[in-house]
Design brief:
about 55% helix; globular; 6 helices; mainly alpha
Amino acid sequence: MSKQFQLTRGMLLNFVNGLNEEVAEIQPAGFNNNIHWHIGHLLVTAESFMFAYPKQSANIPVEYAALFGMGSKPADWEVEVPSIQELAGLLKEQASRIAEIPAHCFPHPLPFKFPVEGIDTFGDLYNLMLHHEAEHLGQMKAMKRVIQA
Protein backbone atom coordinates (compact mmCIF):
# COMPACT_ATOMS: atom_id res chain seq x y z
CA MET A 1 0.00 0.00 0.00
CA SER A 2 1.39 3.36 -0.94
CA LYS A 3 1.89 6.14 1.56
CA GLN A 4 -0.47 8.23 -0.57
CA PHE A 5 -3.24 5.65 -0.14
CA GLN A 6 -2.57 5.37 3.61
CA LEU A 7 -2.77 9.15 3.89
CA THR A 8 -5.89 9.54 1.76
CA ARG A 9 -7.85 6.64 3.25
CA GLY A 10 -6.72 7.64 6.75
CA MET A 11 -8.00 11.18 6.23
CA LEU A 12 -11.28 9.81 4.86
CA LEU A 13 -11.76 7.53 7.87
CA ASN A 14 -10.92 10.34 10.31
CA PHE A 15 -13.48 12.57 8.58
CA VAL A 16 -16.16 9.85 8.65
CA ASN A 17 -15.48 8.91 12.28
CA GLY A 18 -15.86 12.55 13.35
CA LEU A 19 -19.06 13.05 11.38
CA ASN A 20 -22.48 13.78 12.85
CA GLU A 21 -25.05 11.37 11.32
CA GLU A 22 -27.59 14.18 10.89
CA VAL A 23 -25.11 16.30 8.94
CA ALA A 24 -24.31 13.31 6.71
CA GLU A 25 -27.98 13.04 5.64
CA ILE A 26 -28.44 16.68 4.57
CA GLN A 27 -28.14 17.47 0.86
CA PRO A 28 -27.19 21.14 0.65
CA ALA A 29 -28.38 23.32 -2.22
CA GLY A 30 -26.08 23.09 -5.20
CA PHE A 31 -24.91 19.53 -4.45
CA ASN A 32 -26.16 16.38 -6.18
CA ASN A 33 -25.83 14.07 -3.18
CA ASN A 34 -25.33 14.02 0.57
CA ILE A 35 -22.21 13.06 2.54
CA HIS A 36 -23.64 9.62 3.35
CA TRP A 37 -23.87 8.88 -0.39
CA HIS A 38 -20.27 10.04 -0.98
CA ILE A 39 -18.97 7.64 1.69
CA GLY A 40 -20.76 4.68 0.11
CA HIS A 41 -19.74 5.83 -3.36
CA LEU A 42 -16.05 5.77 -2.41
CA LEU A 43 -16.41 2.23 -1.03
CA VAL A 44 -18.18 1.01 -4.18
CA THR A 45 -15.82 2.74 -6.61
CA ALA A 46 -12.64 1.48 -4.92
CA GLU A 47 -14.11 -2.04 -4.82
CA SER A 48 -14.99 -1.77 -8.50
CA PHE A 49 -11.58 -0.46 -9.55
CA MET A 50 -9.45 -2.78 -7.43
CA PHE A 51 -11.57 -5.95 -7.18
CA ALA A 52 -13.95 -5.87 -10.21
CA TYR A 53 -17.04 -5.36 -8.03
CA PRO A 54 -19.80 -6.45 -8.34
CA LYS A 55 -18.99 -9.20 -10.87
CA GLN A 56 -15.89 -10.64 -9.18
CA SER A 57 -16.04 -9.34 -5.61
CA ALA A 58 -18.37 -10.50 -2.86
CA ASN A 59 -16.64 -8.40 -0.19
CA ILE A 60 -19.47 -5.87 -0.06
CA PRO A 61 -23.19 -6.46 -0.74
CA VAL A 62 -24.13 -6.35 -4.42
CA GLU A 63 -27.03 -3.99 -3.54
CA TYR A 64 -24.51 -1.24 -2.74
CA ALA A 65 -23.89 -0.76 -6.48
CA ALA A 66 -27.45 0.53 -6.96
CA LEU A 67 -27.30 2.70 -3.83
CA PHE A 68 -23.89 4.29 -4.35
CA GLY A 69 -22.79 3.66 -7.94
CA MET A 70 -22.27 6.35 -10.54
CA GLY A 71 -25.58 8.01 -11.41
CA SER A 72 -27.30 6.98 -8.17
CA LYS A 73 -28.64 9.47 -5.64
CA PRO A 74 -30.21 9.47 -2.17
CA ALA A 75 -33.54 10.65 -3.60
CA ASP A 76 -33.84 7.22 -5.27
CA TRP A 77 -33.14 5.18 -2.13
CA GLU A 78 -36.12 2.92 -1.43
CA VAL A 79 -34.42 0.47 0.94
CA GLU A 80 -32.64 0.86 4.23
CA VAL A 81 -29.16 2.21 3.58
CA PRO A 82 -26.13 1.00 5.58
CA SER A 83 -25.08 3.38 8.34
CA ILE A 84 -22.00 5.54 7.92
CA GLN A 85 -20.38 3.49 10.73
CA GLU A 86 -20.98 0.30 8.76
CA LEU A 87 -19.56 1.91 5.63
CA ALA A 88 -16.53 3.15 7.61
CA GLY A 89 -15.85 -0.38 8.84
CA LEU A 90 -16.02 -1.68 5.29
CA LEU A 91 -13.69 1.09 4.07
CA LYS A 92 -11.18 0.13 6.76
CA GLU A 93 -11.42 -3.57 5.87
CA GLN A 94 -11.13 -2.71 2.19
CA ALA A 95 -7.94 -0.75 2.85
CA SER A 96 -6.38 -3.92 4.29
CA ARG A 97 -7.33 -5.88 1.19
CA ILE A 98 -5.93 -3.18 -1.09
CA ALA A 99 -2.69 -3.23 0.91
CA GLU A 100 -2.37 -6.96 0.17
CA ILE A 101 -2.34 -6.47 -3.61
CA PRO A 102 1.19 -7.44 -4.69
CA ALA A 103 3.24 -4.60 -6.22
CA HIS A 104 4.04 -6.74 -9.25
CA CYS A 105 0.36 -6.57 -10.28
CA PHE A 106 0.31 -2.81 -10.88
CA PRO A 107 2.32 -2.69 -14.14
CA HIS A 108 0.06 -5.32 -15.77
CA PRO A 109 -2.19 -4.05 -18.56
CA LEU A 110 -5.91 -3.96 -17.88
CA PRO A 111 -7.77 -6.85 -19.59
CA PHE A 112 -10.37 -4.33 -20.85
CA LYS A 113 -10.53 -0.85 -22.35
CA PHE A 114 -11.11 1.68 -19.57
CA PRO A 115 -13.37 4.59 -20.63
CA VAL A 116 -10.83 7.23 -19.47
CA GLU A 117 -7.83 7.97 -21.69
CA GLY A 118 -4.49 6.97 -20.19
CA ILE A 119 -5.80 4.35 -17.78
CA ASP A 120 -4.07 1.29 -19.23
CA THR A 121 -2.63 -0.64 -16.27
CA PHE A 122 -3.79 -1.70 -12.82
CA GLY A 123 -1.38 0.92 -11.46
CA ASP A 124 -3.13 3.62 -13.51
CA LEU A 125 -6.47 2.43 -12.11
CA TYR A 126 -5.04 2.51 -8.57
CA ASN A 127 -3.87 6.11 -9.11
CA LEU A 128 -7.30 7.06 -10.47
CA MET A 129 -8.88 5.53 -7.36
CA LEU A 130 -6.60 7.70 -5.18
CA HIS A 131 -7.49 10.83 -7.12
CA HIS A 132 -11.20 10.00 -6.98
CA GLU A 133 -11.09 9.41 -3.23
CA ALA A 134 -9.27 12.69 -2.54
CA GLU A 135 -11.64 14.61 -4.82
CA HIS A 136 -14.74 13.26 -3.04
CA LEU A 137 -13.22 13.87 0.39
CA GLY A 138 -12.77 17.52 -0.59
CA GLN A 139 -16.41 17.67 -1.70
CA MET A 140 -17.58 16.16 1.59
CA LYS A 141 -15.53 18.67 3.58
CA ALA A 142 -17.04 21.52 1.56
CA MET A 143 -20.54 20.13 2.04
CA LYS A 144 -20.02 19.86 5.80
CA ARG A 145 -18.89 23.50 5.95
CA VAL A 146 -21.93 24.64 3.93
CA ILE A 147 -24.29 22.64 6.15
CA GLN A 148 -22.77 23.97 9.37
CA ALA A 149 -22.63 27.60 8.18
